[in-house]
Amino acid sequence: xxxxxxxxxxxxxxxxxxxxxxxxxxxxxxxxxxxxxxxxxxxxxxxxxxxxxxxxxxxxxxxxxxxxxxxxxxxxxxxxxxxxxxxxxxxxxxxxxxxxxxxxxxxxxxxxxxxxxxxxxxxxxxxxxxxxxxxxxxxxxxxxxxxxxx
Length: 150
What we know:
Order of helices and strands: HHEEEEEEHEEHH
Shape: globular
Number of helices: 5
Structural class: alpha+beta
Distance between the termini: 57 Å
Number of strands: 8
CATH topology: Jelly Rolls
CATH architecture: Sandwich
Strand order of the largest sheet: 1-8-3-6
């Protein structure tokens, strides 16, 4: 028996990308509940559950995904200091995905949470299809960079 995973069509993914990237919140990019499941499936799997205190990724490790928080909150930690808490619909982990380098921070579930991974293929499609997404990610990165130097 062969298992075939459903992947949305390119046009479905594009519509979802535009819907996702045309809105923003305090953390940069937001996603509504209707689009979240399509996103999760389009990157090859279901959202991932983490218990409170569980490490999602560690600083210095190679990153192949950015993540969108579906529920709960995630602490971003640099040098044992929480520099940001990302809540529902927020994105994190984008830096390593963009530059191919190692993670610059550690992400830890502050409370039980569910996150959806975004791989590089999907990320590039989002940037290509929805310029607002790229602009929102750049704003988010600029905000995070400014906070680190304050």
